[in-house]
């Protein structure tokens, strides 16, 4: 079965605008377009129920119900319970709050493993704990490939390891790391596994309870919805951590790790993402699925196959450019390499490449994308130039990729 791109793009109002639709959007890893189902819910909330939720009057009651639907929809996506979720302002902020929650339970000499492949959100917050005597051990990438080797992690884990923090998919390298194997190693050492799914979640959906992860975080503005950071935790893990919100909210699951308070309308609009997934499922599949997570799995499988086909066209084109260095694997595979492609050219600065492509209305960017440690480990020293990143998602089309291929082939290299 192939993904019906005409149906998909009809769900996105942006593509009905001639000027916006004239751009081929390949900067989706920085933030994706939003389908009408999400927009409609956000519009309704701000138009009719922009009040404090969970109060005794009609608009407030409706606002609370809309927010509950947002929590429940995200829980179904992950095959979790809504009380296991914190919906904060961003994944970076959620990581910071999470690190502060762990801090009192860590003794001097306790160890946290971080990678140099991650977005800084899942590195910097943990490194701040060094001032309290926590030892940070770095799981390093191969400087040629950008890959993490599980055997290297084995050598890092000790009896003092308390947390293993890693990305499910690098926003630079594009590799989807072996979650189960990493979590098994952490648990064998009686440590917890903390996964950053920001660059993974636009391409695959995960059953958190079966994943092996103890904590999983991602951002919904990268997954076709509003700007919210989702943090899931196993109930026993969350219960053992001290709350980071107001003390009188410590018995409220959605508030314990959200000191800023929830974003009312943005959370309510998340239910629109589930509506979108269900609409895609109903359009493509005949047989009903009993639960939202199973529907999402099938839809994301469709997404992934489509993205892989597009990504391999782009990877093949880049590999033939003179002096090209592709970061990560040179071929995309569903479940192994995402359609996030970073590269550099020996004879052309990254900003020159981006300038050439944007003149042809091909939306790409260059830089370090908050993964500065990864770039330095790869030997890319100038963070302003950084890498050129092309990030495809399921609403990208063959025609857009044909334009991109032509633009790449026209580079003066």
Explain what this protein looks like in three dimensions.
By secondary structure, this protein is an alpha/beta fold. It is built from 16 helices and 13 strands. The strands form three sheets. A seven-stranded mixed beta sheet has the order 2-8-7-6-5-3-4, sandwiched between helices. Strands 9-10-13-12 form a four-stranded antiparallel beta sheet, with helices on one face. Helix 3 (36-48) runs antiparallel to helix 12, helix 5 packs parallel to helix 6 (121-127) and helix 13 packs parallel to helix 16. The longest helix is centred in the last third of the chain and has 28 residues, at 292-319. It is globular, with a radius of gyration of 21 Å.
Describe what is shown at a glance:
The protein is built from 16 helices and 13 strands. By secondary structure, it is α/β, with parallel strands linked by helices. The chain is globular and about 60 Å long.
Pick out its properties.
Aspartate Aminotransferase, domain 1; 16 helices; alpha/beta; single chain; 413 residues; Aspartate Aminotransferase, domain 2; 13 strands; 4-stranded antiparallel sheet
Rg computed from alpha carbons, rounded to a whole number of angstroms:
21 Å
Please tell me the CATH architecture of the largest domain by its name: 3-Layer(aba) Sandwich
Separation of the first and last Cα atoms: 39 Å
Structural class: alpha/beta
Query: Biggest β-sheet: count, sense, barrel?
Result: 7 strands, mixed
Instruction: Flag low-confidence runs.
Output: none
Lateral arrangement of strands in the main beta sheet: 2-8-7-6-5-3-4
Q: Report the top-level CATH class of the largest domain.
A: Alpha Beta
How much of the sequence is in beta strands? 5-15%
**CATH superfamily heading of the largest domain:** Type I PLP-dependent aspartate aminotransferase-like (Major domain)
Taken in chain order, the helices and strands follow as HHEHHEHEHEHEHEHEEHHHHEEHEEHEH
For the record, the count of structural domains works out to 2
Please state the average pLDDT score: 97
Number of strands: 13
CATH topology of the largest domain: Aspartate Aminotransferase, domain 2
Number of helices: 16
What does the overall shape look like? globular
Helix content: 25-40%
């Amino acid at each position: 079965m192939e993904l019906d791109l005409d149906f998909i793009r009809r769900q996105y109002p942006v593509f009905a605008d001639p000027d916006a639709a004239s751009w081929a959007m390949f900067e989706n890893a920085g933030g994706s377009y939003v389908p009408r189902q999400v927009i409609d819910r956000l519009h309704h909330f701000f138009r009719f129920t922009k009040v404090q939720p969970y109060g005794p009057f009609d608009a407030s009651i409706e606002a609370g119900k809309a927010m509950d639907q947002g929590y429940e929809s995200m829980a179904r996506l992950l095959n979790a319970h809504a009380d296991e979720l914190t919906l904060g302002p961003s994944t970076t902020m959620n990581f910071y709050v999470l690190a502060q929650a762990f801090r009192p339970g860590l003794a001097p000499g306790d160890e946290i493993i971080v990678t140099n492949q991650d977005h800084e959100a899942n590195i910097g917050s943990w490194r701040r704990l060094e001032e309290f005597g926590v030892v940070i051990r770095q799981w390093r990438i191969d400087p040629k490939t950008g890959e993490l080797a599980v055997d290297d992690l084995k050598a890092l884990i000790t009896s003092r390891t308390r947390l293993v923090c890693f990305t499910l998919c690098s926003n630079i390298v594009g590799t989807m790391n072996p979650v189960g194997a990493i979590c098994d190693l952490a648990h064998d050492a009686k440590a917890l596994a903390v996964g950053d799914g920001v660059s993974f979640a636009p391409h695959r959906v995960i059953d958190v309870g079966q994943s092996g992860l103890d904590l999983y975080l991602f951002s919904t503005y990268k997954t076709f919805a509003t700007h919210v950071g989702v943090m899931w935790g196993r109930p026993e893990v969350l219960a053992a951590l001290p709350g980071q919100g107001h003390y009188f909210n410590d018995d409220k699951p959605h508030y314990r790790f959200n000191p800023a308070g929830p974003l009312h309308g943005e959370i309510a609009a998340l239910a629109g993402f589930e509506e979108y997934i269900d609409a895609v499922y109903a359009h493509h599949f005949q047989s009903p699925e009993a639960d939202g997570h199973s529907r999402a799995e099938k839809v994301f499988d469709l997404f992934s196959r489509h993205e892989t086909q597009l990504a391999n066209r782009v990877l093949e084109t880049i590999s033939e450019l003179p002096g090209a260095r592709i970061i990560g694997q040179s071929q995309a595979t569903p479940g192994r390499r995402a359609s996030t492609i970073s590269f550099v050219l020996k004879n052309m600065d990254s900003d020159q490449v981006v300038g050439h492509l944007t003149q042809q209305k091909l939306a790409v960017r260059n830089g370090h994308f908050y993964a500065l440690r990864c770039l330095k480990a790869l030997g890319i020293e100038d963070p302003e130039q950084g890498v050129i990143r092309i990030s495809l998602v399921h609403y990208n089309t063959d025609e857009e990729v044909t334009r991109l291929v032509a633009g790449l082939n026209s580079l003066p290299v």
